[in-house]
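FAQ: What does a ligand-bound record look like?

Like this one, built around glutamine:
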Amino acid sequence: MTITDRTASELLALQAAGDVSARAITDAFLAVIREREPTVQAFVQVDEAAARQQAEAVDAKRRAGAPLGPLAGVPVAVKDVLCTRGVRTTCSSRMLADYVPPYDAHVIERLRAADAVLIGKTNLDEFAMGSSTENSAFQVTRNPWDSTRIPGGSSGGSAAAVAAREAPLSLGTDTGGSIRQPASHCGIVGVKPTYGRVSRYGLVAFANSLDQIGPFARTVTDAARLLAVIAGHDARDSTSVDQSVPAYTQSLDQPLQNLRIGIPQEFLKTGLDAEVEAAVRAALREYQAQGATLVDVTLPHAAHHAIAVYYIVATAEASSNLARYDGMHFGHRTADKGDLIATMSRSRTEGFGPEVQRRIMLGTYALSSGYYDAYYLQAMKVRRLIAEEFATAFTQCDIIASPTSPTAAFPIGEKTADPLTMYLSDIYTISANLAGIPGVSLPCGFTSNGLPIGLQLLAPPFAEERLFRSARMYEAATDWHTRRPPL
Ligand code: GLN
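The answer part, i.e. the structure of the complex:
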């Protein structure tokens, strides 16, 4: 088996046994990046020399017998919305095309402390707004399973990089599905942790009350390893929760007895592709074969109002967050300067793409006086109902299962002219962000034309360990995660 087909767990074991060096691992992934990037275009930036230097430092530590971190010598790709000290962080926006942060995000500090090798920054929909990476100001990332299709989004670069074997692990962010949906479309594992589980310090904010950082990997075990490294309290994010992080990987292979899986009836009705539905139903039968019981649950507000609520709350927060990019305090400044207002307005027109501008306008409208009560306040009330609905459902079941996305990856260009259909593709993922609960997407089959299908599992707040164990039960009984894209 070639090095780049190995999981992170295997790469750690190989190094510990002295069979391969961190430098050789990094070189192998850099070679795959060079070969596949012309097609996949997952990365906005790869600094080969810097990656090699980090790998060599790990090898030197190992030779000296110094203690090594839990991801020693394992390459990790990082969504370009996470601040990296001295390394450009663009959010795939012209607005921040030249921004070099003077500090590392909390998760980057954790990766460095874990002796991981930061191999590159990955492409996304501008400011994480989108479901396809088509909103990147720089490039459209391709789905490794079919390069005429989108990889999902907004963390499409991070998902595609892992699926294409350009990195064994990556980090994404999930505000309304941006980890789970691209994981589903690329045939890999993606985890959105509980709100507050991972510090958002150094994450360029899209919608603060919804954003969470989480791992991508090809296996549940690898995803658990990466979450264990980045999770935990950080005083610099006031919403980071001070709760201990379980040793996820230790319990992973213990199947859950008498698992009760909630099936939201409303989620299996309209708009769901027949092949996706068949794959998800087959996955549920596998769980039943392992002794799980299926329980009907009902999530009417999540099913019928989550998209509307999300596009008010998320755009309201975004309009406020993005106000700082005015070409004066932060961000691109136009060459065509006029008075203060004209300069700001031109800078923002040039710096932001059409989807970001649309969201700023929607959010500003929802927050404006006279409309605030009718839109923002009302949305916050329904958001509360959605969270309560989940809490009630979890009194009847341990986890909730559904498709991750109603269809497999769609062709590039198919939905760009129609934002509303694009928004509807997040129907199953968005309510977890509104409720703050954790979720995972894992591979559960393929369509007849060879595109991956994802199963979504959701759990109550801080029940990531339960999520990993139940995901692993299915993974251990199936081989979807071992398939390779035809690159
Ligand atoms: N696709 C959703 C949106 O466009 C979610 C994005 C995300 O999770 N960052 O907002």
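Follow-up question: can I read anything off the structure? Yes, for example: The chain has a mean pLDDT of 97.
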